[in-house]
Specification:
heterotrimer; A alpha/beta; B mainly alpha; C mainly alpha; A: alpha/beta; Rossmann fold; four-stranded parallel sheet; 14 helices; 41% helix; 20% strand; globular; C: mainly alpha; two-stranded antiparallel sheet; 11 helices; 2 strands
């Protein structure tokens, strides 16, 4: 009886849910609706859609946006993708998912073959999948530089600033115990010594649920290294605020995902001064070209809740969504055989004072990036060699100062401030 | 075993309805049903181990995860065929469940619940630390071979699994062993008094529960195609499994199934209206009220209503 | 060495404070309050809201957190524990659901991203290579002060002895004229207040996140299991065993194995000596 009654209720409810209208272009958003990361992508996409709709939409149709929350949970991400693909039958998916969540729904993307754009996930393993299996991966695009490119450019920072300017010869690496931590640590250890002349004295890996960093910092101090290189993508507020609260007497830089957002200062209650991190572009403190400055101004006029400045993926979503729609316009729809080549050709260059500044374009499918010696199909076209005239750099280094301001400190072309040590560290 | 013709008629009607479902509902809804089917398998498994015996496990994902990880690692890293890796996964899960036995011989009640919680935390941390080249560490694994493609096939696969589990557990619980298991839940001492070995009964319940959990976990990972420790060894997952079993009606087979469908459907039904965190707030709130109103579950509520209206009609 | 001792003492003091409220409820009602971690969650966020967002004095923030925590404890007893009349499984399950509901409530109100609390007292002291933040020192001192006063409260006052009586034998206590309902109310109130206070310190040690209730719950569970029920001294000692174990594992073995040893300890103790190291000889 229960079953019958339940089924009747289910059937009734399903009728409500089955809204099969196809006289419009449906864009699905997948990501967390309560994190700054997710909201940056969502809002970038919303702004692009409103702009396109005001100009008459795409293929003569209006674009509607459907949201599916992942709550940064892998299984919820799979369900969210299925919801967008099967219940809503969207034409295009824009994702502000974090790495684990993207990896979770990726098999669904391969199954449904829906054009999908990732704006935050930077895992190079996904690009490897495109290299290995182009046919099933071709609907996927990633318009943030993959993590290998991030790490490579970071080595230059080590050479130019840490070694030459600060005079540091040895480093102790503090790395979170994740695949991300392992990958970055591997790249840094292999490349730092030969390329930058900085010796790695010790690698300390820590568990992402670590609450108390006092013994870890003590160990780092005891290693006798000149500075700490931190790799932290999960819960990085904890390690950075404890660095400040414990006033660890040595410099620290590295990858610190929490420090990427404008609310970092507010969230840490000011315990963030001195922290520096690599950031994909456009980062905080990044001087913007006129077009992207206008995007930021409109963003701030439109949204009054956090994040008050979109993270880099907000810009990625804004430009990426417009490109996906332009490709659809060219291809006459989202049929992959036509849409994928059209998307691969999209290229938007933004210049500042006549110089190459930001670029949303793609690597050719078989093109080899000279420094890393590998291909990056469907990854944003980045440039990791001075003078950065082929594209935007894969990353910049930003630093938070003790007065709560922040600036880009590397590379020189994009610099808006200097790399400094926190006041409690004696030189 | 006390089987009656109407038992078969009800099962047959139910099975027919469930198999006809792809004709009746949209693909999106079928996906919801797939998760409900898996949740039902996990809830039944939990109910066999905990609901009947009274040994409440808060670490059920420990068992599910071992099954899921075993087959995921075998197929992905060692290219073992799925037909071989799934049985191995089930056996490994059953062996792992004997770890629960040791404490269960000595402690009861809340202490047992806590030790199972500790097991789950332990494996959560171990999976990330030990041999991340095999387990994929914190990021887990993606691109695991899937058994089916498409909503309809996935639905039939999960439904068949769920029905096979439900019917075999239903039959098993109608045997004397099943009765004895429920008796442990009521009073372990009286079972001892009647000359039965509670240790062997407990071992049986744990192995059976682990069998189902391992099987469910293995199929689940080959349905999802990816696995991540954070989503698997998660207190929210424990919550969903236990609440599904209890809200539906513990110590029955239909109860966990009803609970699983109720919870999954509630969660998915709210999605279009409340896409964000509000959904969990409402969902948890409803679960809490329903559970506080009748801890014995929906099955019990329906049965009470049935008893009230029964005079005048007959089944 | 000095470093390990100093860091161990600081962490253990915090752990003892975290576990105390949990032990109280577990000893008196034999109830596993799985929503215990939610006191820490709510306490931390209440403090964050008033002291950091509204800019009220820090002490007011702490007081408000403690009051809200106590109120939550009372509400939980009245609305969940009492109506379920000692059905342990039902209480465990419903408190677990409650914790999940509160977690999503916090996400609704404050969003998903983590927040860092300002140190209650800024600044650090350096001693023999170890760094002592004043806030952590304060947490350890407050923790000790509370544990000592709790010990005297339970052993020396009338109400405290009544609590002990209820914990040993609820029926016997009722016969001898103790109003166990009132005792329960007091205990749940104290437990909530302690939890919320621990939440402020825990969060200022680490961070505020909507899922921050899980880790302290696990720590409390570990301490209570290893220490055994009904023992304030046991809780204190075991908090130090676990605190020091974590520090030593982190400093000398491998930081990423930090939690593994704690779990192994729990499982080992439960199997070998289920009543805990300092618990009563009954289960």
């Amino acid at each position: 009886m229960t079953i019958l009654r339940n089924s009747a209720a289910l059937l009734g409810a399903m009728a409500l849910m089955a809204t099969a209208a196809s006289a419009e272009i449906k864009v699905g958003f997948i990501g967390s609706l309560s994190s700054d990361t997710g909201l940056s992508t969502l809002r970038g996409a919303e702004m692009a859609i409103d702009e396109l709709n005001a100009k008459g939409g795409v293929l003569g149709q209006q674009i509607v946006l459907v949201k599916a929350d992942t709550g940064e949970d892998v299984t919820e991400g799979v369900k969210a993708y299925e919801f967008l693909a099967e219940t809503e039958e969207v034409d295009f998916i824009i994702s502000g998912s974090i790495d684990d969540v993207s990896l979770g729904w990726l098999p669904r993307m391969q199954e449904f073959q829906i054009p999908t754009l990732d704006t935050w996930t930077s895992y190079v393993g996904i690009i490897d999948m495109i290299v290995d299996d182009y046919d099933s991966m071709r609907p996927y695009f990633m318009n943030i530089a993959s993590d290998e490119a991030l790490a490579t450019l970071y080595i230059d920072f080590g050479k130019d600033v840490l070694k030459e300017k600060m005079g540091w010869d040895s480093v102790v690496i503090l790395a979170e115990d994740t695949a991300f931590g392992g990958a970055i640590t591997g790249l840094v250890t292999e490349a730092l010594a030969p390329n930058a002349g900085i010796d790695v004295t010790e690698i300390i890996s820590f568990d992402i649920t670590t609450n108390d960093f006092a013994p870890i910092f003590a160990k780092a101090e005891a290693s006798g290294a000149d500075f700490i290189y931190l790799v932290s993508s999960v819960n990085s507020q904890v390690v950075s605020s404890q660095y400040v609260k414990l006033q660890v007497p040595m410099g620290m830089t590295g990858v610190n995902v929490a420090a990427l957002g404008h609310e970092f200062w507010e969230d840490t209650g000011g315990a963030g001064g001195g922290i520096s991190t690599l950031s994909p572009v456009p980062s905080l403190g990044f001087a913007l070209d006129p077009v992207n400055a206008e995007f930021l101004a409109q963003y701030q006029a439109r949204y009054d809740t956090r994040p008050s400045i979109p993270h880099f993926n907000g810009y990625n979503a804004y430009h990426g969504l417009k490109q996906a729609m332009a490709a659809a316009e060219e291809a006459g729809g989202f049929e992959l055989d036509a849409w994928v080549p059209a998307m691969e050709k999209q290229d938007d260059i933004f210049k500042k004072d006549g110089e190459m500044w930001l670029r949303w374009g793609w690597w050719g499918n078989d093109e080899i990036e000279p420094r890393t010696g590998r291909a990056y199909p469907h990854n944003i076209r980045f440039d990791i060699t001075e003078p950065y005239d082929e594209g935007a750099p894969s990353m910049v280094v930003i630093q938070w100062y003790e007065d709560g301001t922040n600036a880009v400190v590397y590379p020189d072309k994009f610099k808006t401030g200097e790399f400094v040590l926190p006041s409690w560290v004696k030189k | 075993m006390g089987l009656r013709w109407y038992h078969f008629a009800m099962w047959a009607g139910f099975i027919a309805l469930m198999y006809a479902m792809p004709e009746l509902v949209s693909k999106g809804t079928l996906r919801t049903f797939i998760f409900a089917n898996f949740l039902a398998v996990f809830a039944i498994s939990w109910d066999v181990l905990s609901g009947r015996t009274g040994y409440i496990s808060f670490g059920h994902p420990f068992l599910i995860g071992i099954g899921a990880y075993t087959t995921a690692i075998l197929t992905k890293r060692f290219d073992v065929a799925i037909e071989i890796s799934i049985p191995i996964a089930v056996v490994v899960t059953m062996i792992a469940s004997t770890l629960f036995i040791l404490p269960a011989l000595r402690i009861r009640g809340s202490y047992f619940a806590l030790v199972t919680l500790a097991f789950m935390e332990l494996i959560y941390q171990l999976v990330q630390v030990i041999r991340p080249d095999l387990t994929g560490g914190t990021r887990g694994m993606s691109g695991i071979q899937t058994l089916t493609r498409g909503a309809v096939n996935g639905y039939y696969m999960s439904l068949s699994l769920m029905l096979a589990v439900a019917i075999s557990m239903w039959l098993l619980m109608r045997t004397r062993v099943g009765t004895a298991l429920s008796a442990i839940g009521m009073s372990e001492d009286s079972v001892l008094g009647s000359g039965l070995s509670t240790t062997r009964l407990k071992l049986f319940a744990f192995l059976t529960g682990a069998f189902v959990a391992g099987l469910g976990g293995a199929f689940y990972v080959h349905y999802l195609g990816s696995i991540a420790p954070r989503a698997l060894f998660d207190i929210n997952f424990v919550f969903t499994i236990i609440v599904a079993a209890l809200i539906g009606g513990s110590s029955t087979i239909i109860g966990p199934m009803v609970g699983a469908f109720f919870l999954t459907y509630l969660l998915e039904y709210l999605r279009p209206y409340l896409p964000g965190a509000e959904r969990y707030f409402i969902y948890g709130g409803i679960a809490l009220l329903l559970y506080m109103y009748q801890p014995k579950g929906i099955y019990h509520i329906v049965m009470q209503a049935w008893e009230r209206f029964k005079p005048g009609k007959s089944a | 060495m000095t470093q390990i001792i100093i860091q161990g003492l600081l962490l253990s003091g915090l752990y003892a404070l975290i576990a105390m409220g949990f032990t109280l409820i577990f000893s008196i009602g034999r109830v596993l309050n799985l929503a215990y971690g939610a006191y820490l969650l709510i306490g931390g966020y209440v403090y964050f809201y008033f002291a950091q967002m509204m800019g009220m004095p820090k002490l007011v923030g702490v007081l408000l957190a403690v009051i809200v925590g106590a109120a939550m404890g009372l509400a939980k007893y009245r609305m969940i524990v009492k109506p379920l009349k000692g059905d342990h499984v039902a209480i465990e399950i419903s408190t677990l659901i409650l914790a999940i509901v509160l977690q999503s409530g916090v996400i609704l109100a404050f969003g998903d991203s983590s927040k860092i609390l300002l140190p209650i007292i800024p600044g650090v002291e350096r001693l023999a290579g170890a760094t002592i933040p004043y806030s952590n020192l304060l947490a350890a001192i407050v923790s000790w002060a509370i544990l000592i006063s709790l010990y005297f409260f339970v052993n020396k006052t009338h109400t405290g002895r009544a609590m002990q009586a209820v914990s040993m034998d609820a029926k016997g206590a009722a016969i001898s004229g103790i109003d166990s309902d009132r005792i329960n109310m007091i205990t749940w109130g104290i437990s909530g207040a302690l939890g919320a206070l621990a939440g402020v310190f825990f969060a200022s040690y680490t961070q505020l996140t909507p899922s921050m209730w899980v880790a302290p719950l696990i720590i409390s569970v570990a301490i209570v299991i290893v220490g055994g029920i009904g023992s304030i001294i046991g809780t204190l000692i075991v908090a130090h065993i676990i605190g020091f174990m974590e520090i030593i594992v982190t400093a000398m073995i491998a930081p990423e194995l930090r939690g593994v040893f704690t779990m192994v300890l729990i499982i080992g103790v439960l199997v070998i000596r289920p009543q805990g190291l300092f618990g009563r000889e009954e289960l």
